[in-house]
C-alpha cells in the first residue's frame, strides 16, 4: 500500500482548468459519481483498504476560504441549479449542494441516527432484515467519532434556541439539544453558505482529504453522462469535463469494475434512467420523498437576531413517532434573505414593517414523515421532480404548523406568520385553527423547502420491487452500487446525513 | 367568488387555451429559484404603456424593456421605505440584481419566465384598465394581494415576482445596517481556519479483523 499523505488544509482536486488534453482515460478499481455524503465516505473507506478510487463531481471545487457568508451568492455558486431546483409546480424548493463535498458543505450540521422505528419499518416492509439497530450501531459509532458529532453545548444554543426551549418546557414537550458534526463552532450562523473557517465537519474537510491521503483522485467539473455496463456487469463511466464558462473541456472515460452512484436522490435516478439501467423493477426514480419543510417565523418582544449564534440549537421530538404525529420541530436561525422569503405578512408597508423588525424574528423548521409519492424523471430532455405534498400528508403538515404556532406563542412570540401565499398571522391560540385549517393542499399555497431529497432508488430484498439490495448493489447490474439518500426505502423524518454516512460505510466495507 | 376572482378564472382559462404540453413548468420560490409557468410563445401587449417607449439602462441587456419597467414598478410597490429607517430602494440595485438572478436560468426556463411576466403585466388591464407597469403604488399592491388569493397561476406569478424583488433588495449590503444584520463575520472577527480534520486512527480490516465496522 502506498504511503499515506495527509495534508492539513485544502484538497487536491483536478478541475477543468487543470485539464489540457481533450480526452482522458483512467483505470480504477472503483469509480464514484458524486463527492457528497455517500461518495466521500465510500471513497475513503475503499481507498484506505487499498482500492484505487476515482471520485467524479459535476460541481465545482470551492475551497472554504472562498465562501462568502452571503446566502444568495452561495445559492448561486454552491447549490444545484444555482439554488433554483424546484419541483414541477415550483412550490417546493429542493436544495442540494452541487460542489465538491455536495450537500454536506451547505447543510445545517444536524445529526440524527436513523430512528429505530424506521429501521423496523424497513425490515418488515422491505425485507431488509439485516439492517437492525444492532447491525447499524457500529457504523453510526464510527461516523460519529470521525466527524466529531456531539450534543450542542450550552453556548451553542443561540437566543432563538433558548426561547424555543423555554417554550417547549412550558408546554411540557420533549426538547433536546441537536447533535452536530462540528469542531469548535465559531457561532457565525452561516452554515447554509458553507463553513468558511472549516468548523463544520463536511466532506470537504474530512472524508475527502482522508480519501486523497490514501490515494483517491478527485475530479471536479466532471459530469458523468453514461454508466458503462456489459453482460450485466458494470464496466465504468463516461463523463464530460466542463469549464466554468460552460464550454466542454474534455471527454473522460473511467474503466472500473465497480461503479458507485452517489450523486444524490435527484441525479442518481436520472443517470440510471438515461442509461436504461437497473430498472427491471420499474422503481428507478419512483418513491421520491423529501421532508417538505416550512419555516415558521414569529415576532418576539425583545431582539433575537436570528442570524447570530449557531444556526440550529434545539429540537422538539415530542411528535417524532408517527403514532404521535410524525413530525419534528427544529429551532432554526436565518438571515435577512431567508426571512424575506418565508412569510407573507402583506404587500408593501406590512412586508417592510415585518422586515424592519427582523431582529425580533425567530423561526421554527417543521419536518414531516412524508409518503414516498414523488417521481424523478426526464421530460423533453429536462429533469422533472414530480412531487406534490400528498393529501394524506397534508394533515401532518397542518399538525406540525399548529404545533409550531403553539410553541412560538408559548415561547413568548407576539405574532406567528404562516408561510402561505396569502397573509395569515396568528396572535393567540384562538387564531391557530382558523389560520391553519383554511389552508388548502394546492400548489403554491404553502412556501415549502426540501433539504432532504431521498428514496428514488429504493433499497429492498425483492428485485421486482426495489432497485438495490441491502449492500447497495443494484439487483440488475453486478458491480453497480448506489450509496446516497436514493437508497432510503421510506422517508426517515429526521435529517438524513448520518444515515447516508453509515450506509455508505457499510456498503464500502462489504464491497471491499 | 368575487368579480376579480371570476375574471381571474376566465383569464387563466383563456391563457391556458394556447398552452402546449409544457404549460406548467416550475416556478421558483426564491428569487434565484425562478422558473415560470407559462404558455409556449408570448402574446401581444393588450394595451400600450407610455413606458414602452422609454429606454432601459445600458446595463440591462439581460432584460427586455418591458421586464425592466415591470421590476422597477415592483421595486417601488413592494419596497416602500418612507417613514422608516430602511434604505430607500432607489439606492439599491434591485432590478440589476434581478437581472443577475434571471441570468442563471437556462434558456428554456428564461423564456417561460418572460412569458409569465408578460401575463402578469397584461392581466392588470383586465382588472384595473392599465398594465401593471402603469398602476399607482396602492393599486399595484392591491393587485399583488388579489393574486396571492387567486388561482395557481396567479399565486405563482405573484410569489415569484415578489421573491425576486425581495431577494434583490435584501441581498445588498446597504440594506443591512438599519436592521442590524451582521452579514459576513468570519474575517471581521478574525476567526482562525481549522483546516482539515485529523486523519482517523483506523487500522485496516486485516489488522483488526473488523468485519462489522
Q: Keyphrases for this structure?
A:
heterodimer, A: alpha/beta, eight-stranded mixed β-sheet, seven-stranded antiparallel β-sheet, 25% helix, B: 213 residues, mainly alpha, 8 helices, 46% helix
Characterization of this structure:
The complex is a heterodimer of chains A (about 500) and B (about 210). In chain A, the strands form 5 sheets. In chain A, strands 1, 2, 3, 9, 10, 11, 12 and 22 form an 8-stranded mixed beta sheet that branches. Chain A is built from 12 helices and 22 strands. The longest helix of chain A has 17 residues, at about 395-410. Chain A has helices at about 35-45, 70-80, 115-125, 135-145, 160-170, 205-215, 265-275, 335-340, 350-355, 395-410, 430-435, 495-510; strands at about 15, 25-35, 55, 90-95, 110, 150, 175, 180, 215-220, 220-230, 235-240, 250-260, 295-300, 315, 325-330, 360-370, 375-380, 380-385, 415, 425, 450, 480. Helix content of chain A is about 25%, strand content about 20%. Chain B is built from 8 helices and no strands. Chain B has helices at about 5-15, 65-80, 95-100, 105-130, 135-150, 150-170, 185-190, 205-210. Chain B starts with a helix and ends in a 5-residue tail after the last helix. Chains A and B meet through α2, α4, α6, α8 and α9 of A and α5, α6 and α7 of B.
